[in-house]
From TrEMBL:
Bias (Acidic residues) ranges: 461-470
Ranges of compositional bias, category Basic and acidic residues: 471-481
GO MF: cellulase activity
Gene3D superfamilies xref list: Glycoside hydrolase, family 7, domain
Family statement drawn from the similarity comment of this UniProt entry: Belongs to the glycosyl hydrolase 7 (cellulase C) family.
E.C. numbers: 3.2.1.4
Gene expressing this chain: cbhB
Keyword Glycoprotein belongs to the record: yes
Spans annotated as Disordered: 455-481
Keyword Signal (UniProt): yes
Keyword tags: Carbohydrate metabolism, Cellulose degradation, Glycoprotein, Glycosidase, Hydrolase, Polysaccharide degradation, Signal
Stated name of the protein: cellulase
Catalyzed reactions: Endohydrolysis of (1->4)-beta-D-glucosidic linkages in cellulose, lichenin and cereal beta-D-glucans
Amino acid sequence: MLAVFLSLCTLASAQQVGTHEEEGHPGMALWTCDAGGCSKEMKSIVLDANWRWLHNGQYTNCYKDGDWDKTLCPDPVTCALNCHMEGNSEKQYKSTYGIQPVQDGIELDFVTTTKYGSNYGSRVYMLDDENHYQMFKLKNREFTLTADMAKMPCGLNGAVYFVEMDADGGKARSGGTNAAGAKYGTGYCDAQCPHDMKFMNGKANIVGWNASHDPPIGSWGICCAEMDIWEANSRATAYTPHPCSITGPYVCEGTECGDNSEDERYDGVCDKDGCDYNHYRLGDKQYYGRGNGFTVNSKKKLTVVTQFITEGNTDDGDLIDIRRFYVQDGRVIPNSNISIAGMTGDSVTDATCAAMKTAFGDINDFARKGGLKAMGEALQRGMVLVMSLWDDSDANMLWLDSDYPLDKDPSLPGVNRGPCRTDTGLPAYLRDKQLPYPRARVRYSKIKVGTLGSTFRAGGDEDDDEDDIYGDDRRLSEVHI
């Protein structure tokens, strides 16, 4: 992920537990598969702590309008002890955050408006039980999901990915200052070392807090390995491993965060660029997009299959390849082939990543941080499933679906990443109520994990897509879906 999330300015994360509302977790199914078939088990999801109301145990806000209450939060530890994180009922998940169950999955809405203001996007995690995240160990396994991207325009990102969070949400790691834990969605980290997380390892991120930044950020970042399975809108998509040189959640500051300046980007503990397999960027501009003229039609439901291949096909072998398939209209569709001069391949390997970095003139920080071997080690230790919908105040999602960076000639290899205009990813544009974007949403369903070849088949059962809220092709062109 190349940016951090936005949340309601009146809501925040906390470490103690509020008593005004009992936390309720919407249900979500998980299938576990092998050669004998698949078994279904009901799990649940939890909203990230950064979206929650934070108060003093009564009704005084610890955090409001992007800033901390200086009395309640004079220092990181006192703030964590003073401030309580409020629960949300399942009804509030839908009415406040636009999160609701659908058949075998969940829907995330982009904009949800209440009398308190508007919420933009969300991030949720799969729970194993009430107090622990479901931990996935994916080496020598495959992971499959069905995605509905029809109502996802340029500039938005519907993301399904794994990060090396603690199973208990960092509760044990905090030394007692985090009483909320996984039940309330605490403990997030990723390879971008986000600075907008309000609590890290049980301490408030108030040092150097910049309330004028969008979103507000503190001096600390929280880093961990990240495997992006699915980052997409209806125009572009990519899957990307991001290895790190550290294990588990790591609080960074300064150079080790890799974000003080472009010169220090590659001095941090995580590979922020990753090795992204973006069909459009790698030369196949007709592989994924809106309509029957594309190999994979994003206006219809599609099943995404990701395989983690190890040396010797064993659980303890090194990760050597990350492969991708799609299933749509009953057909198993192979991944696109790279069509960049001097390059071949159709999956993520260390050799392909090295060739890609050379062709695009990028620094191979992926190799510096250990490449697929390091990514596989994180996958084997166990990672948490994240599902989100977000817009991008840092780079307007150009890194996914348009020309990026803007100071480079779009004709250079690797700069053109998708067909979207460079102005359609502005959050202010996406949130304009005069356009249909606020009605955007994504659906994720039929989450499956299992042995290689066990989670998908030809003749799939994808439902027909619904009527498109964006109208006909002429209207679609006007609003730059």
